[in-house]
């Protein structure tokens, strides 16, 4: 199935495995919150056990170093795409209010990004992630 939009997550390559998974999870929750229409229907197995609904389209995961991650953020903002972000400082916090305060304390040019996620028209996402490779 071809979607009109793409969801892309860009994760910094040098993170520990648990950090990558944590960042990807938090970032995709931002997509779900901002675009509730991207959530599909609930799942149900043959025993009639119900499960939570998921985002209903593929999520493409890219890897990047710090400068490439910052470039992707700049490209997104230039194209009026509001991304979800995760910074290294957020690993030191324990709740959402502290996460927001950690981001608020740093100017955009100095954010120590470890991940971003965005959803936009396919061609726009392609321009934002141009040059990035899928995460290994």
TrEMBL record:
Q: Which InterPro entries is this protein grouped with?
A: DUF2000 (IPR018988), Pep_tRNA_hydro_II_dom_sf (IPR023476)
Superkingdom of origin: Bacteria
Record's Pfam families? DUF2000 (PF09391)
The cross-references to SUPFAM superfamilies, in alphabetical order and at most eight, read: Peptidyl-tRNA hydrolase II (SSF102462)
Q: Could you identify this protein by its name?
A: DUF2000 family protein
Q: Which organism is it from?
A: Bradyrhizobium campsiandrae
Q: What is the lineage of its organism?
A: Bacteria, Pseudomonadati, Pseudomonadota, Alphaproteobacteria, Hyphomicrobiales
